[in-house]
Amino acid sequence: MTLKVLRVILIAVSVMLVGFIIWIDLSTDLWQKYVVISGLVAGLVTFFLTAIVIDRVIARSTHERWAPVTRLALGDVRRQLVADLPPYATPAVHRLPRLRMDGDRDADLDDVIAAAVDERDRLATALSRWSSFLSASADVVDIMDSVAEIARRLDLIGLLATELRHESNGEPSLSSEDEAVRVLLSEVDAYHRAGDGLIALIDTTLANNAELAVREPTRSMPNG
Fold it and tell me: Membrane among the record's keywords (predicted)?
């Protein structure tokens, strides 16, 4: 059962409960006899209406009001993620350097470490600029969670590459160099998939948000 279906069921139950209480009030004198119970029922109805209906309406109104700024914020985060690709290409996250099976592996590891740090800094800069606004005024919890997950993966990639670099210099920290390389390559691939998924999620959210931005009433310019 999805969250949306559950919310619809709760709203329906709340409406039925309110109708039942009104019916009892009109057809019997139960509430007049049991004042305490009537107070508890009134509190319960108020809670349901506030938690399920009123808060939802207020949140949606806030999202609609700030839809244009939400598009700006998500567009900024997306711009930091997307690699420079031809216009016809599918948007994708910046690719981290690959380890070569031959050649100077230490240089490749240094490139991976530097790229992971750079990507994380770019993402953190964009997110820090908009995190307060997005958390307060936009329904983008999935995107925020995905950004945090990608940052975690970049940290892990940098850590694995650093440990592998130490191992190649005679300071082993992993049981096997081959296993370390396999784990690192797996994490890099996972980061690429997660980044591409986040870009697709942002694009979907922007498309859904565009309708709200169009419906935003145009403010009249002050006279004089």
Answer: yes
